[in-house]
């Protein structure tokens, strides 16, 4: 079982979000997972330019670090998306990464995985950011078990106080990957999203037959 985290802080090793995520991954590891951490601070990822090339064959025009990060998350059974709060939202780095996942959303390439979200903030906005990241998970067809946010202010001990909850979140994610609990509300939302995405998969059928056939096999599209 593999659990991979994506950290959207630009601060690298100094990032408090990264430190909190390391606790989450430690909890997952204790529960038997092999863990991986993708730090967007180490990567050059260009923002989506809406050229729509990916809709032709799933490939982006930018040959940057996104594809390596994408391979790593595709290889995982469980995902952690984590971001600091920047002006009440995810960091720009995290948003750029999420936008580059548009084709994965349309084709539901990550569907069936489990996820959880993590945010750190100075004072406020953490729950809004974990809520947004969980919403993104559902767009991707990833079932979320929830998330945690920590308002750290300038308190140097606040991270230590969040450690137990973070480790537990990682453990719960690993258990979810193992036991595959059902969440009817999320299943309904994901099914509704797929009805919309099915229009894209159908429209691209002639030049992306493999994607179309996969959707038929999954039962997400009725063959015409
Ligand atoms: C550009 C910027 C915007 C921020 N916006 C907010 C904010 O809206 N609300 C808040 O409480 N903290 C805000 N913060 C503080 C960070 O969310 C907080 O320090 C966070 O723990 C940083 O995480 P990191 O160490 O992983 O980068 C902001 C920090 C920066 C640099």
TrEMBL record:
The keyword Transcription does not apply. InterPro entries: Flavoprotein-like_sf, FMN_Rdtase-like_dom, ISF_SsuE-like. One of its GO terms (molecular function) is oxidoreductase activity. The keyword S-adenosyl-L-methionine does not apply. Residues 1-155 form the NADPH-dependent FMN reductase-like domain. Keywords: Flavoprotein, FMN. Its cofactor is [4Fe-4S] cluster; FMN. Belongs to the SsuE family. Isf subfamily. This is Flavodoxin family protein. It comes from Methanoculleus formosensis.
